[in-house]
Write a structure and sequence with these properties.
The complex is a heterodimer of chains A (359) and B (143). With 359 residues, chain A is α+β, with helices and mostly antiparallel strands. Chain A has a domain of 91 residues: Phosphorylase Kinase, domain 1 (2-Layer Sandwich), CATH 3.30.200.20. Chain A has 10 helices and 13 strands. Chain B has 143 residues and is mainly α. The chains are: A alpha+beta (359), B mainly alpha (143). Chains A and B meet through helix 6 and helix 10 of A and helix 2, helix 4 and helix 5 of B.
């Protein structure tokens, strides 16, 4: 393997207009920001190929404590880019993680939030880095992973069910999340994503608009209000060699809403990385639904689930369109932007046809 | 161009995934993998793009003329104008986008209209949308 040492130290996308994050700039910043970390040294800073909406970096930080003993921390840095396919911000995801931490859903601990873009051209957050695990949806398609998929399915939709069952009044979310009710959430979410689709117009969407019209005629009422992750699928969890989920990541789209939204999102066809009936590349829809129902104690009523599955297609199409749009505008020219728009838009339309009985 | 563009793009995609990606790691490997996959998509699209756009534009123009009669709206006949004489992809694509926007509007109007003619037209629109997805299908897509 070729190791590009320079790329390890100065981890940035060549097309990004943001200033590079370097080991020295990060050390200098942290020495001032966290006075109790003395003699800060950063090692092995490099960007990870995770997601499309935020830049994610991994590094080791060593520092001397008050007793002069050196301590090494493994950390993840997330930075907001100038334009993204997801209109969220560092504080929102940071607060989501903090709200869910300690409530039975495994998540990394948050360390620091810096919202002033003067330091790194965009807000950043630091979190503990849980290393030694996997998060690839592609890897799960290798034959050696087949025997472990039932365990992963149980864990993936089991934790999703636990999240659905949590009492949102006991989570500290009211100070940063938009309020919602069981009656309002479906309309609220649809309005938000339709507006995003219209804002990021990259071409006519006759199939998505047919889905939107159907959704507007058939709003469901949520059986309860939950903390919805917003992007819960196999690609956003860390799993170990046995298929145990060790962390649920990427909470930037977290919101109050109908718990069926997460279930529907996780079973949308475009995340079937095995190109077969296994949703999220892990298990058939029936297994996902029954596991979620057992864990949550809730029922995935078929008509309501269909509504949220179609909604997931609209939301996904809005995100894929936004990726195409931010690339065309030049605001963010990461390779993944046109790639996802090319690869996913037609498949998402096909998923709509299937759900509406038109395929 | 010879060798033809489609097989060359497919060849480059394969070389990228088999030769270059394994020599990289992390973010660079991920980018190179996506570039290879995009070359493969370009290979598929290169050969069929003009054909699918001409076929689709003609099909939508027929639907819009039919909708002009069913909905009693002569402006839809004007929306169906054009003959794709300019076969550059940029021109075909621009016409296609306008035609699909008009089809979206017609679809919504037809859904709200009673009668056998409206139902038959609605089904014909769904048939065309189904065909449009088949025309655009990418072999590497998950679904």
């Amino acid at each position: 393997m070729v190791s590009d040492a320079a790329a390890q130290r100065v981890a940035t996308d060549a097309r990004s207009t943001m200033k590079p994050i370097t080991e020295s700039s990060l050390s200098e910043y942290l020495a001032t920001r966290v006075p109790e970390w003395r003699e800060v040294q950063i090692h092995g800073l490099h960007r990870l190929p995770l997601g499309a909406s935020r830049e994610t970096y991994r590094f080791d930080l060593s520092h001397a404590g008050q007793d002069r003993q050196r301590e090494t921390l493994r950390l993840i840095l997330r930075r907001d880019p100038p334009a993204s396919n997801v209109d969220s911000n560092r504080r929102h995801e940071y607060e989501c993680y903090r709200a869910i931490y300690g409530h039975g859903i495994p998540v990394p601990k948050m360390i620091l939030l810096e919202e002033d873009p003067v330091h790194f051209d965009g807000a950043i957050s630091l979190a503990e880095d849980l290393r030694g695990f996997h998060n690839s949806e592609y890897q799960l398609q290798n034959p050696e992973w087949r025997p472990k998929l039932p365990r992963l399915a149980e864990q993936l939709w089991g934790y999703m069910g636990k999240l659905a069952a949590l009492d949102v009044d006991k989570l500290s979310v009211a100070h940063f999340m938009q309020p919602a009710t069981s009656e309002s959430t479906a309309r609220q979410e649809l309005d938000y994503w339709v507006a995003k689709l219209e804002k990021n117009d990259v071409g006519a969407e006759p199939i998505t608009w047919a889905a939107i019209r159907f959704l507007r005629r058939n709003y469901p009422v949520a059986q309860k209000l939950s903390l919805v992750h917003g992007d819960f699928r196999a690609g956003n969890v860390l799993y170990d060699d046995e298929g145990n989920v060790r962390a649920v990541l990427d909470w930037e789209m977290g919101h109050l809403g109908d718990p069926l939204e997460d279930l529907a999102w996780s079973i949308t066809r475009t995340f079937s990385f095995g190109k077969d009936d296994r949703r999220s590349g892990v298990a058939p829809k029936e297994v996902a639904v029954s596991t979620w129902e057992k864990s949550s104690g809730l029922r995935a009523e078929p008509e309501a689930l269909l509504w949220w599955e179609l909604f997931a297609c609209v939301k996904a199409q809005a995100i894929w369109a936004a990726m195409g749009h931010v690339w065309e505008s030049g605001a963010n020219q990461d390779v993944i932007m046109p790639y996802a728009a090319w690869w996913l838009r037609n498949a998402q339309d096909r998923a709509v046809l299937e759900l509406m009985g038109k395929l | 161009m010879r060798p033809a563009v489609a097989p060359v793009a497919a060849f480059l995609a394969t070389r990228m995934s088999l030769e270059i990606v394994p020599k990289l790691e992390g973010f660079s490997a991920s980018n190179a993998g996506m570039i290879g996959a995009m070359l493969q998509m370009m290979s598929e699209e290169w050969d069929r793009a003009a054909s699918r756009l001409v076929e689709e534009n003609a099909a939508i123009r027929l639907l819009l003329r039919r909708a002009a009669e069913v909905l009693g709206d002569s402006s839809l006949g004007a929306a169906a104008a054009g003959d794709d004489a300019d076969l550059r992809l940029s021109s075909l694509d621009a016409a296609n986008d306008m035609l699909r926007r008009n089809l979206t509007e017609v679809h919504a109007r037809v859904e709200g209209r009673d009668g056998a003619d409206a139902r038959a037209l609605e089904e014909a629109i769904w048939d065309e949308l189904r065909a449009s997805v088949a025309r655009r299908r990418i072999s590497s897509a998950n679904f």
